[in-house]
Amino acid sequence: MAYQHTETHTSISSSHLNGFRIIFVVTFMIFLLMAMVGQLFAWNWRTWLPGAEGTRSIFESVNSAVYTVISQLR
After folding, report:
1. What is the spatial distance between Cα 53 and Cα 55, in angstroms, rounded to a whole number?
2. Which site from 6, 39, 45, 69 is most exposed, i.e. has the minimal number of CB atoms within 10 Å?
3. How many angstroms separate the Cα of 73 from the Cα of each of 30, 51, 53, 70?
4. For the segment 40-53, what is each residue's pLDDT rounded down to a tens digit?
5. Cβ distance 58 to 46 under 8 Å?
6. Predicted local distance difference test score (pLDDT) of residue 29
7. Do 22 and 16 touch, CB atoms closer than 8 A?
8. Using an 8 Å Cβ cutoff, are 45 and 39 in contact?
9. DSSP character for 12?
10. Are 51 and 61 in contact (CB under 8 A)?
11. Tens-of-pLDDT digits for all 74 residues of the chain?
């Protein structure tokens, strides 16, 4: 006998969840399109999205994030 869950108790209505889904899909498609166009024309599209504290690469962004977190833990 399979378990059937008939009641849902969420504080967010389905219309709000649909709005979040639409925003996620649209944002994802914009980033995907931007990356595909950048790759197609051999552009360095990653520099179009600056990292933490205006860094140029993802590794610098990770360093900035780690130093920020470590300074907060002290």
Report:
1. 6
2. 6
3. 36, 22, 19, 5
4. 988 876 666 665 55
5. yes
6. 95
7. no
8. yes
9. S
10. yes
11. 566 666 656 677 777 788 889 999 999 999 899 889 888 988 876 666 665 556 566 666 677 778 778 887 76
Tokens of 3: 């378990």
pLDDT given at position 6: 62
**Encoded tokens for 41:** 């024309």
What is d(CA 48, CA 67) in angstroms, rounded to the nearest whole number? 23
CA atoms of 18 and 31, how far apart (whole Å):
20
Q: What's the longest Cα–Cα distance across the chain? A: 57
Structure tokens at 57: 């690469």
